[in-house]
Amino acid sequence: MSTVGKTITCKAAVAWEAGKDLSIETIEVAPPKAHEVRIKVNYTGVCHTDAYTLSGVDPEGAFPAVLGHEGAGIVESIGEGVTSVKPGDHVIALYTPECKECKFCKSGKTNLCGKIRATQGKGVMPDCTSRFKCKGKDLLHFMGCSTFSQYTVVADISVVAVDPKAPMDRTCLLGCGITTGYGAATITANIQPGENIAVFGAGCVGLSVIQGAAVKKAGKIIVVDTNNKKKEWGLKFGGTDFVNPLELPQGTTIVDKLIEMTDGGCDYTFDCTGNVQVMRNALEACHKGWGTSIIIGVAAAGKEISTRPFQLVTGRVWKGCAFGGVKGRTQLPGLVEDYMKGDLKVDEFITHRHPLEDINHAFHDMHAGDCIRAVVDLQK
Ligand SMILES: NC(=O)c1ccc[n+]([C@@H]2O[C@H](COP(=O)([O-])OP(=O)(O)OC[C@H]3O[C@@H](n4cnc5c(N)ncnc54)[C@H](O)[C@@H]3O)[C@@H](O)[C@H]2O)c1
Ligand SMILES: [Zn+2]
Ligand SMILES: [Zn+2]
Prior knowledge:
The protein is 26% helix and 22% strand. It has helices spanning 48-55, 103-107, 117-122, 168-171, 177-188, 204-215, 230-236, 254-261, 276-284, 310-313, 328-340, 359-368, and strands at 8-14, 23-29, 36-45, 70-78, 90-93, 132-134, 137-139, 151-155, 159-161, 197-200, 221-224, 241-243, 268-271, 292-295, 317-320, 350-355, 373-377. The strands form 3 sheets. Strands 3, 4, 5, 8, 9, 16 and 17 form a 7-stranded mixed sheet that branches. Bound molecules: nicotinamide-adenine-dinucleotide and zinc ion (2 copies). Nicotinamide-adenine-dinucleotide binds at residues 47-49, 176-177, 180, 200-206, 224-227, 230, 245, 272-275, 278, 296-298, 322-323.
């Protein structure tokens, strides 16, 4: 029986309030309106941003909501005017949409898109309403994706069709973590052969930076992490050296150490920790005259970065990126192809798998420290 045009009843993990575990509920998902797409979500990753919002420290976090933004699935139906995807397409949801017509999209300078920013931030669809209901209450959308549900509705600019042969239980991770790090190295930094880089934090994002740097044939790829277990992980993805900043000789800072290892400083450094002191060290470990530090980590609410202005006067550059600077609709299908050709590691990031009913385990895994990425199967 076709579900087109009808409300679908399905299971979802609902975040009723901050600081509480998600609750598996039966929810109603309304059909897509004009320029919207309803997706049967098969798999979703769990990212730190989901945990951050759920914890309640995200000042923009609003509840009750359906979280999740690292998802892959199949288009179930489309609203009026949708031409970019069709029912049956295998897709990845995009928390950084791409309308191809706003000032941002046309600038050629950024992957940020302004088209639905305001409503996405408020947790509603572009017409200011929600497509989710549970126990008579509207549930908010999250990051324009809401992949912790068996079905979701997204704007047509927030979804991209990819190779249907690509396994969705892996490609879901291209919806955030892997693409973010890989894009930061290959697009935002556009590392050139022989350049020396340092990556602070070897989680999913940092390991993806390392992978991108290796593809770009960087010189030294120095992995900096306070957890010694990350040495093996970092080297597996292409790192050339590992430094634990907590184990340096007395009087040597991580900045001194990196400057010494690279004969004056790194060409690029990346913060993949979200710690503002690490961000400062990452900037100051850059080479005088041209070294560039890229902030990827999301800092806790209210935190600020600082350094002496002289660091910038003498040529170091501080920048950052979201979703690695990748334009989702234009560039993500290419990353899926790279994965299919064996040029992009994805499977290697998956350390845990859970059925939807155990999604809270995925959050606990993340806090335990031995997890790179957990993938949740929404069909189970
Ligand atoms: N900008 C974006 O678009 C974007 C997208 C996804 C994630 N993020 C952010 O990127 C960051 C990393 O995400 P992740 O999933 O890889 O996280 P993760 O927790 O898996 O990895 C973080 C790593 O940093 C290490 N670390 C912690 N403190 C450190 C310190 N002082 N020095 C060196 N290493 C340290 C940890 O041991 C860990 O290995 C998070 O802040 C996340 O919110 C940003
Ligand atoms: Zn994320
Ligand atoms: Zn746009």
